[in-house]
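Sample intake — 4-carboxymuconolactone decarboxylase
Collected from: Kaistia soli DSM 19436
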Amino acid sequence: MSEPTERYKTGMETRRTVLGASYVDAAVASTTAFNADFQTLITESAWGSVWSRDTISRRERSMLTIALLAALGHHDEVAMHIRATRNTGASMDDIKEALLHVAIYAGVPAANHAFKIAAKTYAEMDAEAKTTG
């Protein structure tokens, strides 16, 4: 395996900051020869090239990401990025506003399902905070 690129290193740092070290550690631990190139691709491109930019805030990126994932029906990713709001500064009200946009521009069914996922994920996060806090 070759030495990680600077973009990979930046991406991994950003990925850990946004998603949390335990989530990223689990993803890295489950890397295989089959998906290693994919893991490198997302770390360098999504996290090293896009999420690492300082043009807009991580809060804004979080809102955009959740809206796009909801609009496209990527439900597991919606939940993962709701969890990441703990680290991005996007509030529940921010996400509500993003999902209202989804309803208008991508359709009520997409937003309806995303609201359900968000509510469930926030409830799980609250429960986790009570058991660890």
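Post-analysis note: The chain has a mean pLDDT of 96.
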